[in-house]
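Researcher: Here's my situation. A collaborator sent me these components and asked whether they could plausibly form a single complex. I don't have experimental data yet, so a predicted model of the whole assembly would be a useful starting point for our discussion.
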Amino acid sequence: MYTFDYARPESLKDVATALRKQGEAKLLAGGQSLVQALRLRLAHPPALVDLQAIPELRGIAVANNVVSVGAMTRHAEVAASREIQRAIPALAKLAAGIGDRQVRNQGTIGGSLANADPGADYPAAVLGLGANIVTNKREIPADKFFLGLFETALKPGELIVRVDFPLPLRAGYAKFRNPASRFALVGVFVCDTTSGVRVAVTGAGPCVFRAKRMEKVLAKDFTPQAVEKIVLPAEGLNTDIHAQADYRAHLVTVMAQRAVEAAAKL
Amino acid sequence: MTTPLALKVNGNAVSVQVEPRTLLVQLLRETLRLTGTHVGCDTGQCGACTVHLDGRAVKSCTMLAVQAAGCEITTIEGVAAPSGDLHPMQAAFKEHHGLQCGFCTPGMVMNAIDLARSKADLSEAEVRGGLDGNLCRCTGYQNIVKAVLAGAAAMRS
């Protein structure tokens, strides 16, 4: 690991000051991806700004048909939250399946979203549920947040404060996980709302994306059978040592069916 | 450049100067000489370095020491009673032979203690799922799962 400075500000204002002082500084949430990236020297920021002491970034609230999750809320907290289990059970279930226990005890939703790993679970929930990402500067709808491989709409100096999830009619998530990394080889989040169906796919492409053809048929017929014949073109999907693009395309169809089935059960 | 760091480790106040890039596991093993916490894979996969941070099982190879400032850390050295009596989870690993070479055992025990505290009446499936983040290269896990179930039951009684 290269050397770096470290700051632990206690307010959003002090974060802004710390970032102004060190333009290339990186924000540190739970560190479950960033610390490993530092160790591999994939990242070498001059400074880290640790967000753990900022009260506004913590907590879960359910009000006016919106579930708000603070950026520094850990996966284990979302998984164990009675309020979220009642309001959006698919979200609690997704959080309970991220990484392993130790990762869930330290990793945060804000960190996961800002990192935008192509195999991360939370992006599927955020895009699938049509959440709003609230930053210290503005609100970014999920459809405009994920731009590419590890790339988001966040600007320098901008940080996620919380994520607002609208309540769905029903929702479900199914993932085919890589047994070693526990990331999604493919994960599909389906969500039925009063204004239509949303289907978000993670793990398959450079970043999470919507499967619009599946959304169309599910809007008419919200059953696993409705999507069983829809196979995404393999072109543009990820190929790596774990799976070829056409296998991932096949998995999207299978996971979509399981996600619809899960949504019906929850 | 070093920065002052104060935290509690196994109940004792610790005050040291560290570089921000120091990992928590390096502080424990190299500075405090608590070598019961092991480094296995060094990439955040194997869980041999698991310790408790304010009671939660975390991987000390995937955390900076400075992130633990002001926190309470418990390592495998801190779970037995001051009399030397093993923690019920340690005793269960011994009784059920939940180890062969023993390298993964400190991490297994630390995660298992947190797992047992998180839920009463763990099922075998929950134990297997709960141990996702701990790899053992010797045992095939059968005796580890037995030990965790027995240890969890002993912790409740």
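Model: Some features of this prediction you could bring to your collaborator: The domain at 54-265 of chain A is CATH 3.30.465.10 (Uridine Diphospho-n-acetylenolpyruvylglucosamine Reductase; domain 3). Chain A has two domains: 1-53, 54-265.
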